[in-house]
């Protein structure tokens, strides 16, 4: 068998504020999945896509023009320079081994790559996830927050349902299935994300415990027949705001919605919008430029008053 050739990495280092816009630009321009790496020390994000061949000049010019449009919209993209690098597949794999370390969520959950020799604690659930050419591995602050909320809301011996909207690698749904949530459903509009999530679910032996669907949040029913105890929506703020009625419609009274992927400058607006939809903030976490929250859907008790569900 002929050995696989080198890869071409196209990356843009930018601010957290412009990360999502640039990720969408690269994804559309290159027709490839995109990965984002947040550098805690610098506060900058590197948005990258990997291709089998060097992108044509016309494609690079398209990306450059897109960066100018993003800047003209008022987003700070600095430094915002396009870097095209040829790398050996072996170097790409080894670089992930240096950077992708196991993640421990308390004593309950361990996320680790297949090459890690880290042993779980007694009773600790293990999710094995290797980085691919795109999608998350739990390193980003917003994904880590969702994982912590999954653990915080688990009730062993009690059946609780989970809906993962914008599933990406499937990390949250896989963790939920292993923690005992049932049923577990995922949704993502990207066919590549669905394929990768399915592969990761099989690798973790939970493919029969979750339902991975390609679909559009904007097409979910306003009056949902099936509702969930916990929903994670790791989405950009404009989408959270535009589709909040559909998100809330999927949530059981007394349930919890975890919207993540929100810039801290935008969080107050998101909080106000969900408050208008009947959700109250229970937990808030700021990490660098990102802010994530956990909102509970107040339920009505027998005397007609609303109460907060126990965490």
Count of spatially separate domains: 2
Helices and strands, in order, run as EHEEHEHEEEHEHEHEEHHEEHEEEE
Assigned CATH class of the largest domain: Alpha Beta
The whole-angstrom Rg is 20 Å
Give the structural class.
alpha/beta
Distance between the termini: 54 Å
pLDDT < 50 stretches: 300-311
Helical element count?
Answer: 9
Instruction: Give the DSSP E fraction (strand runs of 2 or more residues).
Output: 25-35%
Mean pLDDT reading: 84
Largest sheet: 8 strands, mixed
Shape: globular
Proportion of helical residues: 25-40%
List the helices and strands and how they pair.
Layout: E1 7-15, H1 19-30, E2 34-39, E3 44-51, H2 57-72, E4 82-87, H3 89-99, E5 103-105, E6 109-112, E7 125-128, H4 141-153, E8 162-165, H5 171-179, E9 184-188, H6 191-203, E10 210-214, E11 228-234, H7 237-242, H8 244-249, E12 251-260, E13 262-263, H9 267-276, E14 279-287, E15 290-297, E16 299-300, E17 306-307
Parallel strand pairs: 6-7, 8-9, 8-11, 9-10, 11-12
Antiparallel strand pairs: 1-3, 1-4, 2-3, 5-6, 12-15, 13-15, 14-15, 16-17
Structural write-up:
This protein has 311 residues and is of the alpha/beta class. It has two domains: 90 residues, Alpha-Beta Plaits; 175 residues, Vaccinia Virus protein VP39 (Rossmann fold, 3-Layer(aba) Sandwich). The strands form four sheets. Strands 8, 9, 10, 11, 12, 13, 14 and 15 form an eight-stranded mixed β-sheet that branches. The longest helix has 16 residues. The protein starts with 6 loop residues before the first strand and ends with a strand.
């Amino acid at each position: 068998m002929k050995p696989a050739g080198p890869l071409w990495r196209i990356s843009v280092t930018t601010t957290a504020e412009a990360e999502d816009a640039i990720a969408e630009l690269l994804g559309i321009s290159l027709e490839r999945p995109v990965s984002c790496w947040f550098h805690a020390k610098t506060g900058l994000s590197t948005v990258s896509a990997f291709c089998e061949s060097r992108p044509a000049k016309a494609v690079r010019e398209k990306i450059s023009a897109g960066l100018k449009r993003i800047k003209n919209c008022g987003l700070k993209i600095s430094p915002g320079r396009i870097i095209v690098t040829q790398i050996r597949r072996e170097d790409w794999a080894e670089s992930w081994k240096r950077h992708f370390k196991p993640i421990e969520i308390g004593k309950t959950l361990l996320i680790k790559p297949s090459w890690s020799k880290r042993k779980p604690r007694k009773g600790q659930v293990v999710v094995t996830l290797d980085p691919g050419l795109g999608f998350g591995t739990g390193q980003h602050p917003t994904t880590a927050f969702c994982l912590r909320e999954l653990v915080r809301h688990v009730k062993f011996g009690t059946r609780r349902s989970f809906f993962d909207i914008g599933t990406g690698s499937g990390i949250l749904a896989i963790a939920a299935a292993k923690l005992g949530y049932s049923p577990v459903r995922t949704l993502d509009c990207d066919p590549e994300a669905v394929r990768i999530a399915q592969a990761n679910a099989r690798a973790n032996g939970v493919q029969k415990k979750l339902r991975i669907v390609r679909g559009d949040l904007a097409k979910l029913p306003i009056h949902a027949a099936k509702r969930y105890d916990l929903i994670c929506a790791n989405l950009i703020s404009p989408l959270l705001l535009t589709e909040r009625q559909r998100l809330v419609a999927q949530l059981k009274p007394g349930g919890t919605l975890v919207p993540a992927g929100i810039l801290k400058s935008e969080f107050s607006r998101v909080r106000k919008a969900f408050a208008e939809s009947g959700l109250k903030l229970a937990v808030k976490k700021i990490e660098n430029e990102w802010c994530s929250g956990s909102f509970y859907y107040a339920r009505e008790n027998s005397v007609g008053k609303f109460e907060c569900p126990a965490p």
